[in-house]
Amino acid sequence: MAACGKSITKIFIFIRTTVSLHNLFTSRNVSTHPVGTFLLFLYLLFTMANYTYLTQGGYEKLKAELEELKTTGRQEAARAIAEARAQGDLSENAEYDAAKDAQGMLEMKISELETVLSNARVLDESQLDDSKVAILSNVTIKNLKTGKDLTYKLVSETEADTKQMKISVSSPIGAGLLGKERGDVVKITTPGGVLEFKVVDISIG
């Protein structure tokens, strides 16, 4: 029964989060309609995984990176292949093989970024609710064992940067905090063990 209760709680958290995201892009508040919320949940269950939610800054950064790879990156790859080819017999040309491998990796990265950007949804931070933790929330948490406060910004996996205290919503801490409110205490399983945190503050921006 306890395990079932935990599973139901996780489902409700997921529903609240997906409904909040949906409301950013539509004028209809489906969260007031139980049937609409359930149908939206089923829809997002199969589609949300294909989306990448980004800030405007994150979107522009990825777009610039893609343009750099498609121009300068491809030019450099082509030049490396041409230089290696000029050395002679391609069947025993390690430089040529390395240059072709590098070109293949470059094209894979370009394809990956194109997919991310084509499925990207840019969130308007001014429309986000700061009563619960969601993507783009700034969350201050207290480690109940050490008493230390930490502030993280929850972002998509593509924008995660631990040096800037930006963590992915799919990371152990990010996923554990989703849906929580100020004052909530949460136990999160991390690679270093189970940690207990209290949500001190939530803000947007």
Q: Overview of this structure, please?
A:
This protein is α/β, with parallel strands linked by helices and 205 residues long. Helices cover 47% and strands 20% of the residues. It folds into three domains: 1-47, no CATH class; 56-121, Helix Hairpins; 126-205, Chitinase A, domain 3 (Roll), CATH 3.10.50. It has helices at 2-23, 34-47, 56-85, 94-118, 172-177; strands spanning 52-54, 120-122, 137-143, 149-155, 166-168, 185-190, 193-204. The chain has a five-stranded mixed sheet.
Distance between the termini: 40 Å
Reading the helices and strands in chain order gives HHEHHEEEEHEE
CATH class of the largest domain: Alpha Beta
What's the Cα radius of gyration?
22 Å
Q: Characterize the main sheet.
A: 5 strands, mixed
Helix tally equals: 5
How would you classify the helix and strand content by structural class?
alpha/beta
Total discrete domains: 3
Provide the helix percentage: 40-55%
Count of β-strands: 7
Task: Please state how the strands of the largest beta sheet are arranged side by side.
Answer: 5-4-3-7-6
Low-confidence blocks of residues: 2-12, 21-48
Describe the global form.
elongated
**CATH architectural designation of the largest domain:** Roll
Q: What would the average pLDDT be, to the nearest integer? A: 79
